[in-house]
Amino acid sequence: MKNFYSLFLVFLFSFQLIHSQNPVTFTTSVNKISENHYELVTSSEIENEWRLYSQFLIDGGAIPTEFIFKNNEKSSFELIGQMKESESITKYDPVFKIDQTYFINANTFKQEIKVNDYNTDKIYATIIYQSCNDYICIYRESELLFNLDGSIEDAVNEDLTTLILDDNNPLKLDLKNKE
Fold it and tell me: What pairs with residue 109 in β-bridges?
C-alpha cells in the first residue's frame, strides 16, 4: 500500500509539472511597409531542449503550428502571400520517429497584410502549436495582438489540456497504426 501512495504522488507531481510547463513564449510586433501595407511579426523564445514545430509538416508526426486571424469578417484586411518562417531544422525526431521540421531557441513568423479599413488599428490572431522535448509534448494556443502603431505585445498562453469536452466541443482523435 505504501508503494501505491508513493507511485500516486510521483504521478501527481509529474502531471502537475507537465501541466504547468510553458516552454514557448511569443511576442508580436508590426513593421509598416506603406500607408496600408504591414508586416505582422510573431517572435518566439523556446526553452532549452524544446522544439516548436513548423507550419509545414508531413502527416504522421507533430501537429503543425497554425495561425487563425480573427477580425477579418468585414474584410478589414487581407493576407498577402503565405506566412514566412525563419530558418528551421529538419531532422529525425525521437518522439515521432520520423523527420520533422522545427525550431529551437527562437524563431520568427512573418505575414504581410493589406489594410482595407483605415479604422483598423489592431489585428487579432490565435496561434495553435505543439512543442516537444525528447520525452513529452504539450499542445497550447496563444492569443496574439498586433498593434498597427508598432508597439510590442506579449501573447497570452492557454493550456489546451483544460478544455471541457461536450457535444458542442468534442475531442476527435484520428489514430493511425492502431495495432
Answer: 42, 85
How far apart CA 99 and CA 56 sit, in angstroms, is: 12
**Rounded CA separation 42/135 (Å):** 27
**Residues 144, 28 contacting (CB under 8 angstroms):** yes
Kindly state the DSSP code that residue 9 receives in the 8-state scheme.
Answer: H
What cell does 150 get?
508598432
Tell the residue number behind the cell numbers 497584410, with chain if given. Answer: 113
Q: Give the integer Cα–Cα distance in Å for 125 and 156.
A: 11
Q: What is the mean pLDDT of the chain?
A: 82
Contact 101, 132 (CB under 8 A): no
Nearest residue to 88 via CA among 100, 98, 99, 103 = 103
Check: CB of residue 103 under 8 Å from CB of residue 163. Answer: no
Query: What residue ranges define each of the domains in the chain, with the CATH number in brackets?
Result: 23-162 (2.60.40)
- Asked whether the beta carbons of 57 and 101 are under 8 A apart, the reply is yes
Please tell me the pTM assigned to this model: 0.75
| DSSP secondary structure code for residue 162 in this structure | G
Instruction: Give 156 or 112, the one with higher predicted confidence.
Output: 112
